[in-house]
Design brief:
The structure is a single chain. By secondary structure, the chain is mainly alpha-helical. The chain is built from 31 helices and 10 strands. Among the domains are: 36 residues; 339 residues, no CATH class; 69 residues, no CATH class; 67 residues, no CATH class; 60 residues, no CATH class. 59% of the residues lie in helices and 5% in strands. Helix 13 packs parallel to helix 15 and helix 14 packs antiparallel against helix 15. The longest helix has 43 residues.
Length: 889
């Protein structure tokens, strides 16, 4: 090889290395810029990416559905970009998925919160400052709230929640979170991201991301074995996972502490209402948004005229009852009949399985298999039957839960709360029969159907009931904890073993990121709390329904709940993805079930003592047992319902605080004026003269109406009582009392003024009755002809009607107009633009404009033309609005 060729090759290699180096440097510089941008965003806002969408990478030859083509990754990203959402994308380690991280600026979050009226909490100190100043321009006086009688331990300005508003006047009042003091928590940002849902079929997953620092703080508090189960960090749980999860753990803690109380549910209702107030959930169900899966026809709300999606309740009822008559846009008839057939087969199967358990129990304890299940003189037939029964209960409950969920989805419920309440009813109705049927059989039916096979001198069938209940209870506890903790642990170990078996292929790939690891976790979706509630409610039934037969059950349940709280916490923190935050006002239908089971438990336990137990009532006759049962059972139920009446579901301080919150929100957020009297707000001179005539010694800050009421009170009480009251040193300092020795008799002018006021009330009532008969039809006739109605026009017409009917002193005041429009659901639209005043030559302009409009109508063949903006002015440039309903521009 020549020297020139070697030199040439070396030159080429140097050039290639230089190019690769520059390309690598450019890549590193670009990554460095992106990292700097991410760090700057987090430094300025106090948070980074909140949410992630996961897309599947398809082969080029793969066939995609039309929905996948319509909602492709490109389309979704375009929608996100238009909505002001910042994104960052990367491939997974195996290049099989694309991860798209989402975040929004504080400004964008604020606009979305304002658009959907998202509720946030106010800072008590800041909202107090605003209240003490008031808004004088809006006729809102300073607010000073003092608890003179100490009826509440709460600060009047705490636990105030209201819709978020981007208006600057309220920004300082919102409660701030994090190091950067922003008005949105992590769960607020996630909920604003996921309000519209992510239902596109091209998505593999969509979930909020864990925040490591907050998660570590929560883990250190929550996983400590030093704290009792009822001493949980509920506020931190609520702020990290949402109110629905927080409410579940609050309920579980109270269940663990107060399970032994006879009236546990009454305590829970009071505690629930307190949490709902403190967490801003008192009106959640009234404001809850629709489910993305809800299907309905676009319609107009009969309440407020807004656009809604409507689904006929009768159609839903037919779906619930299984007698749906299929329509063109609903499920085909064949599929409906197959569904009904499947439900019928499932019900027959459950009945058959339960009957088979009874037959097996009889054969194993008293029949031909009795000797087979007897070992060393110990009869094990009942234990074997109980074990088979426990397995059957778990299998059938799992099957029916899936079926109930599908049926519930078919019923098309509007909100998540409505959906879950109906799902609870379906699931529990089946599981109650499936879980407790064999125990009811042993407790109350076995002796009458088969003959008394239990020991007559012992506890009757109580021993067999205790053994069966104990086996079912223990197996259910162990299996439940295995599926919650053991099975996920085994799956994780197998996954790591498979990853290690890949060998060289695994070494070639980079380590998966934290987000990829979160994708590999189980999903804690909407059914997460449902399954947890369901597990504890079934356990609650085993503990309470037959506690006389198995007194050890409450102790075992207490021991299990001590670990259950930590198992559920471990599942949320370590074994599942972070769930979408969801709100909850209460525990829904689960509360009704707890109350119902408490009543049933009173009956079953008294019946066990009176009829099943041989030792307790052996000296009583059958009639005496019956009377004892009726008396004790009725006394307990009566006591329960008396307690329900006496004990309020909501503590007094909670009720008071909700009233305070409503008042403060109306005044400081909605800016509802203190006095809507037009004469008062405008400072009418005539009203001022009338106040002087009746001797009104007006004091600053006291309205005319309040002084008028005071004078009427003087007239009623008489001068003597007033003089005595004014002479008292206690009352002389009061603002609304005259000084001692002051005149208390009204002048003749004052008497006439009060008499005139009373007659004015009578005339107003008469005018209201007269105008209500003819005014609405007059307004509708004018609107039907395209004539706009203004405030002045309505006032003049009202006075004209009153005059023609002989009603004197009619002015068509603002108060009357407001009440009249409210009674007849009418509205008068304000001017469309500020400064839109009538010109001096309005008549000439109107005539000329009308002529031009008429010529255009003849040219276009239009019969009727409406003014577009419904004001008393013609637009110089008419819009394209030509609509029989008078559409607004």
């Amino acid at each position: 090889m020549s020297g020139d060729s070697v030199a040439g090759k070396l030159k080429i290699m140097k050039t290639a290395i230089s190019r690769r180096g520059s390309s690598l440097n450019a890549t590193l510089e670009a990554k460095d810029v992106r990292l700097q941008m991410d760090e700057a965003f987090e430094r300025d806002n106090g948070y980074s990416f909140d949410y992630v969408l996961v897309f599947q990478v398809h082969d080029e030859a793969a066939e995609l559905s039309q929905e996948q083509k319509d909602m492709s990754m490109r389309t979704i990203l375009q929608h996100l970009a238009r909505g002001g959402i910042e994104t960052k994308m990367f491939y997974s380690a195996d290049r099989g998925h694309v991860f798209c991280k989402l975040r929004a600026t504080l400004e964008r979050l604020g606009k979305e919160a304002d658009r959907i009226d998202y509720k946030v909490e106010f800072d008590p100190a800041e909202i107090r400052k605003i209240a003490e100043v008031g808004y004088r321009k809006e006729n809102i006086k300073p607010i000073h709230i003092e608890d003179e009688h100490r009826v509440s331990h709460r600060d009047p300005f705490e636990n105030i929640f209201a819709k978020y508003d981007v208006e600057p006047r309220l920004q300082p009042a919102y409660r701030k979170y994090g190091s950067k003091q922003i008005p949105f928590r992590g769960v607020d940002r996630y909920e604003l991201h996921s309000r519209d849902g992510h239902q596109a079929c091209c998505l593999v997953a969509a979930f909020p991301l864990h925040e490591r620092q907050e998660l570590e703080k929560l883990r250190s508090k929550w996983f400590s074995w030093r704290f009792a189960p009822w001493s949980q960090p509920l506020v931190e749980i609520k702020d990290y996972f949402g109110e629905k999860v927080g409410l579940y753990f609050a309920w579980l803690a109270l269940l663990d502490r107060d399970m032994g109380r006879s009236f546990y549910y009454e305590y829970w209702k009071r505690y629930n209402s307190t949490l709902a107030l403190e967490w801003g959930m008192s009106t959640f169900e009234e404001e809850e948004i629709e489910r993305p899966e809800f299907q309905g026809k676009d319609s107009v709300s009969p309440v407020d005229g807004s656009r809604i999606r409507y689904f006929n309740p009768q159609a839903r009822f037919r779906r619930v009852m299984g007698s749906l008559e299929p329509c063109a846009d609903e499920m085909p008839a064949l599929l409906v009949h197959l569904r009904q057939l499947f439900i019928g087969v499932l019900i027959v199967l459950v009945i058959g399985v339960v009957a088979g358990i009874f037959i097996f129990r009889y054969a194993a304890t008293s029949g031909k298999w009795k000797d087979f299940f007897t070992v060393d003189g110990v009869q094990l037939g009942g234990a074997a039957a109980s074990t088979v029964n426990a397995v059957q209960i778990m299998v059938m409950n799992s099957i029916y839960s899936t079926v109930a969920e599908e049926l519930n989805r078919f019923e098309n419920h509007r909100t998540d709360t409505e959906y879950e309440d109906h799902l609870i009813g379906k699931t529990f109705l089946f599981q109650f029969v499936n879980s407790y049927a064999s125990l009811f059989y042993v407790a109350f039916i076995k002796t009458t159907v088969e003959g008394d096979t239990c020991r007559p001198l012992g506890h009757g069938c109580m021993d067999e009931l205790m053994m069966g209940l104990g086996i079912i209870f223990v197996l259910r506890l162990t299996s439940g904890n295995f599926f919650e903790v053991g099975l996920p642990w085994i799956k994780q170990k197998l996954k790591k073993r498979r990853a290690g078996a890949d060998g060289d292929a695994a070494k070639m790939r980079r380590e998966p990121s934290r987000i990829e690891e979160q994708l590999g976790l189980d999903v804690y979706d909407q059914k997460g709390t449902f399954d947890d509630y369901n597990e504890m409610i079934i356990q609650f039934g085993y503990v309470t329904l037959f506690v006389v037969a198995f007194p050890l059950a409450p102790v075992m349940a207490l021991f299990n709940n001590f670990f259950e709280i930590r198992i559920d916490a471990h599942k949320l923190v370590n074994a599942t993805r972070r769930p979408d935050p969801r709100g909850a006002q209460d525990i829904g239908t689960w509360g009704t079930i707890i109350d119902l089971m408490g009543s049933i438990a009173m009956v079953t336990n008294v019946a066990l003592v009176c009829f099943t137990s041989r030792r307790t009532t052996a000296h009583l006759s059958e009639h005496e047992r019956l009377w004892l049962f009726v008396g004790v059972e009725h006394a307990l139920i009566l006591l329960k319902y008396v307690l329900m009446i006496i004990v309020d579901d909501e503590p007094h301080d909670v009720t008071l605080q909700k009233q305070r919150a409503g008042f403060i929100v109306d005044k400081l957020v909605n800016l509802i004026a203190d006095d809507d009297d037009e004469e008062m707000t405008k400072g009418n001179q005539k009203a001022s003269q009338e106040r002087e005539k009746i001797g009104d010694e007006r004091t600053e800050g006291v309205s005319y109406k309040s002084k008028r009421k005071l004078i009427l009170g003087w007239r009623k009480n008489g001068a003597d009582k007033i003089a005595v009251a004014c002479a008292s040193t206690k009352t002389v300092r009061l603002q609304k009392n005259r000084k001692a020795g002051g005149a208390t008799a009204l002048s003749p002018e004052g008497e006439r003024a009060i008499l005139g006021y009373v007659w004015a009330l009578v005339f107003d009532a008469l005018m209201t009755a007269l105008t209500d008969m003819c005014m609405p039809s007059w307004i509708n006739d004018l609107r039907g002809q395209g004539v706009p109605i203004s405030t002045l026009l309505l006032r003049l017409k009202a006075c004209d009607v009153a005059k023609s009917e002989g009603v004197p002193d009619c002015c068509g005041s603002w108060t009357w107009r407001k009440l009249f429009l409210a009674r007849h659901r009418l509205s008068i639209r304000a001017r469309t633009r500020q400064g839109q005043l009538s010109p001096a030559n309005l008549d000439e302009i109107a005539v000329e404009f009308g002529r031009q409009v008429r010529e255009k109508m003849i040219e276009l063949g239009v019969d009727v033309c409406y003014n577009a903006d419904e004001t008393a002015f013609f637009e110089y440039l008419p819009t394209k609005t030509v609509d029989t309903k008078g559409s607004r521009t």
